[in-house]
Design goal:
Largest sheet: 6 strands, antiparallel
Protein name: Choice-of-anchor B family protein
CATH topology of the largest domain: Methylamine Dehydrogenase, Chain H
Keywords: Signal
Number of helices: 2
Amino acid sequence: MKQILIPFISFFACALAHSQTPCENGFAGQYPCNNYDLMSHIDLNELSANAGNDSWGWTDPQNGKEYALMGLSNGTAFIDISDPINPNYLGKLPTHTQASSWRDIKVYNNYAFIVSEASEHGMQVFDLTKLRNVTNMPTTFSSDAHYDGFGNAHNIVINNDKPYAYAVGTSTFGGGAHIVDISNPLSPSFAGSYSASFYTHDAQVVTYNGPDSEYVGKEIFLGSNEDEIVFVDVSIPTNPVLISTISYSNIGYTHQGWLTEDHRFFFLGDELDEINFGFNTKTVVFDLEDLDNPSIHQEYFGPTSAIDHNGYIHEGIFYLSNYSAGLRMVDISNVTSQSISEVGYFDTYPENDNGSFDGAWNNYPYFESGNIIISDINRGFFLVRKSGTLSSSSFDKNSFSVYPNPAKSFVQIKDSSQSIKIIELFNLLGQKVLTKEFDNESEIKINIESFKSGVYLLKINNSLTRKFVIK
């Protein structure tokens, strides 16, 4: 269905590629969607890169501004998304050595820590507070520190409770955890390791606060190790202790997983099982009530055959970057009773939902604003947001008329039964951008030429609201 519709809407999509586009009738421009709107998009050409990969986010504690950090084939892009409808590409930190399809980023105490599969790349350290005063955009940034205790690395993991970074898939310790002390971010140092002859592709580290009282308060490393999950107590970096391991059926490549917020369940994605065994996107859910004896709780199958990649959990929603099927939002609030269901999606790769390595690589759903980063291999940076998050009471269509809608220069508001006293216009961040009061008028005309294109909420007489689009 997507391939049939694309030719008819591609022109419309190009015109809106960088602007706010609501999800209406299953599409936001050319992008299939359900329950999530496109806030903005920056393509790879503007980012001067051949491909996108990982992403993360940073909120400036000084002023609350939000920034997207996006991995690219040739470096790391920094994007100011404090106005999500009009993001500012601030610049790029170039790769430390050469280009690579793999780059990974995490944040600790206002510093970004970046690794790559590029040979001898090591770990770049970047002071994010430098983003506060960028004048010439896009600028070329430089690292503030560098750690060369390893060469290439596939991934980096940080638990924000503790000053340690865990580089995994490195050329050291058989690809197991290479632990770096980042208590002084500008002088990172070796802190420990754990290998036990296995390669870790990705991992999560948490200060455990789950149902197994034996491990509460300890630092637990959950490693996705190609053909199994490992659980390691890394409370003492110089002396990690293996707790347990678990595998599952139909293994393709044990790729990445994430804990529920109560630390009871672990959601795992296998990157190759869809291709190898021919079923739809599968997520394996493990029950960690007893960390010494984890068990399989259930398997969840998505609606397409696309390959799952990176998934994160926030406030009862599993945000799964699903390659060619885009970002899928899955309600897991009833996972205990094995009741999981998809509640939305935004598909950044409209060509198909096949088992290919195209489309959404990663996402970041942790901004307080509700805006969500999607980093796409083929199309660059996307920012999306749940539809209707700022909607209010229903509008009585028999009382007021708003036309034209969409509008470009002027909008007329007419009331057939009551007088108009006040008009307010809000953007989708909830910010009021216009207020006009009237002396009991029945019909008014407002000039909107000074406003940026996008979706707004028009509020009439402090109670009735209608969605309004400015072209």
